[in-house]
Write a structure and sequence with these properties.
The protein has one domain. The two termini are 20 Å apart. Helices cover 34% and strands 29% of the residues. The chain has a four-stranded mixed beta sheet with strand order 3-2-1-4, with helices on one face. With 73 residues, it is an alpha+beta fold.
Amino acid sequence: MVAYVDSDWAAALLYAGGIIGFKTRYQDTIAHRSTEAEFVAACDAGKLILSFQSLLADLNLAQQDATIMFEDN
């Protein structure tokens, strides 16, 4: 799996070249710094990754390698 995260827009999760998860929403908290907003977005993407890893494990498609997450900053 590969994840792409942007604090301004969205998070997308790809598996075998296709999008299996996508999430857009405003952040619940007000970030005082852009770095803080990026960390919040990365944390939300991490939660999305964990839920899909669990789903894939239930389907007997357990992931062997680590998920790569690309963040815009």
